[in-house]
Every structure is written in C-alpha cells, then in structure tokens.
Write a structure and sequence with these properties.
The protein is mostly beta strands. It contains one helix and eleven strands, in the order βββββββββββα. The chain has one helix at about 135, and strands spanning about 20-25, 30-35, 40-45, 45-50, 65, 70-75, 85-90, 95-100, 110, 120-125, 130-135. The strands form four sheets. The chain has a four-stranded antiparallel beta sheet. Strands 5-6-9 form a three-stranded antiparallel beta sheet, with no helix packed on it. A two-stranded antiparallel ribbon has the order 1-2. A hairpin with a 6-residue loop joins strand 1 (about 20-25) and strand 2. It starts with about 20 loop residues before the first strand and ends in a 6-residue tail after the last helix.
C-alpha cells in the first residue's frame, strides 16, 4: 500500500557480521559456500539451507597444539571417499580462514592464531557441521 502512496522507506543493508557466518554445502558437487546475512543460496539447480552447527562433537573432537605462531590441529577421523572431513574453518569477528580437506589425506592442518573468541568449524560428510571454541580446546597452560 505504501508503494502506491509514494512512501518508500529504503531497507537498511544487512552488514553481515562474520560472527553470524553461515555455511552451505552442495550435496551434488560438494561446493562450500558461505553467507553473513540473509541470503538465498543455490548450487547445481537446488536451494541450499544453512548448516546448523552442533556443539556436541565428542566423536570429532580436535586436538590443538601451539607450533611457532600457529595452531596445529589433528583429529582421529576417517578420511575415506564416503566419510571424511570436507573442510575446517576458523572464524572470529573480523576474519575467516578456510581449509579444504580431501579423502585419503591426513586429517591434520595448521591454522593461524586468531583473537580470543575464535570458533573452529569442522564439516564431516556423514555427520554435518561441528563448532568448537578454540580456547577451550587448548591445553590448560596455553589458554
């Protein structure tokens, strides 16, 4: 009705904070997509829904050690063609780091040290997305 009356109120742009980052994975091609605000994401002709991260990833619990100025992350996880970790991502309020992993590769990687409050996301092709607070994964003397 307001349009017909000539009263237009412009929408405020969604600033899309990285702390609100959403991950999408195409079930057809394995494409990894992200969005920071309201988005309509499609790949291979189908609409994708954002993944809901689980914080109960006891079977996917990473081990983190500080090595020089980075973190070295290791996991005991299958890396077979039908069950593997597709990606790891580290996110904080102003940056994102993403590492693509492949079947038959070791489930280990280095990631840069991020500010306190950084979250680590791991995507398992069988069990979906997991989210961890990096500080809680560090050995007590390194926190």
């Amino acid at each position: 009705m307001k349009l017909l009356q000539g009263e237009l109120t412009p929408n405020r742009p969604d600033v899309g904070k990285l702390t609100n980052l959403k991950f999408y994975v195409c079930p057809s091609c394995g494409n990894i997509l992200t969005g920071t605000g309201a988005a309509s994401i499609a790949c291979c002709g189908r609409q994708l829904r954002p993944l809901s991260p689980s914080e109960d990833g006891a079977n996917h619990l990473p081990k983190i050690a500080e090595v020089e100025d980075e973190y070295y992350v290791t996991l005991e996880h299958e890396m077979q063609k039908d069950h593997y970790l597709l990606f790891a991502a580290c996110v904080n309020d102003d940056s994102i780091w993403l590492n693509r992993l492949y079947p038959e590769q070791s489930p280990a990687f280095r990631l840069p040290r991020m500010k306190r409050g950084a979250k680590l996301y791991l995507y398992c092709t069988k069990h979906s997305l997991f989210k961890y607070n990096i500080q809680s994964l560090l050995p007590p003397k390194q926190r």
